[in-house]
Amino acid sequence: MTCRVLDVRRQGYYEWLAGAKSVRAQENELLLKHIEKIHEESRGTYGWPRVHAELALGLGLAVNHKRVARLMREAGIQGLYRRRRRGCTVRDPVADPYPDLVERRFSVEAPDQLWLTDITEHGTDEGKLYCAAVLDAYSRRIIGWSIDDNMRTALVTDALGMAITRRRPTPANSTIMHSDHGSQFTSWAFGQRLQAAGLLGSMGSIGDCYDNSMMESFWGTMQLELL
Known about the structure:
Layout lengths: L1 H5 L3 H32 L6 H11 L6 H10 L39 E11 L2 E10 L4 E8 L4 H15 L8 E4 L8 H10 L2 E4 L9 H13 L2
Parallel strand pairs: 1-4, 4-5
Antiparallel strand pairs: 1-2, 2-3
Helix pairs in contact: 2-3, 3-4, 5-6
C-alpha cells in the first residue's frame, strides 16, 4: 500500500528501510565507542547513569539513558557498586556535643556557608590509613584534608587548619562546621580551632549516617573510584 501511494518500487522501499536501519546501527557503534572510552577512563567504575551524564554534559550528546543502558548491557559493560563503608567513629560519652544546625539541609546558596567533615579508614598492605577531610557543601569540593596511620585529634585539626588557611572564613560568614560525634570533633583542641576561626560547630544525631550524608557519599565515591 505504501509503495503504491508513494509510487516507488517495492525493492527500492525495502532497500531504503535497510539503509535506515544501518544508519541506526552505525550510530550505535559510534555511541558504544564513546561509552567504552568513558568507562575505561573511569577505570571501569562508571555504570550507565555516570556514563550517560558524561555523554550529555561532557560531550553534549542528546541520547536517551535507556539506550545507553541497553548498549552497555549488550556489550557486557557494567560499573562497580559501592562497598559498605566501615565506620570509625569513637564517641566520648562525657563530651558536650554541638547542636545540630544543619538538620539534613545540605543545600546552600554560596561557598563557605556550610562545611562538612568526617574520618574514613582504608586498609593497605602495610596497615590501616586514616583520612580526615573538610568538604564545602556548595561546591562539593574538598578544601582540607589530612592522612595518618592513627586517629588522634591532630588528624582532624590538620584537615581543618588546611581548610581555614585556604578559605580564610571570618565570623561574619557564620560558616557552619558539621560533623558526627567522634571524640576528635568533640575534643578541646578541635573546639579551639573552630572558635579561633569564627566557625559554628554542628553535630547530627548519634549513629545516623544520614545526618552527614553528603560526606558519606563523598567517601563512598572515593573508595569506589580511587582506592
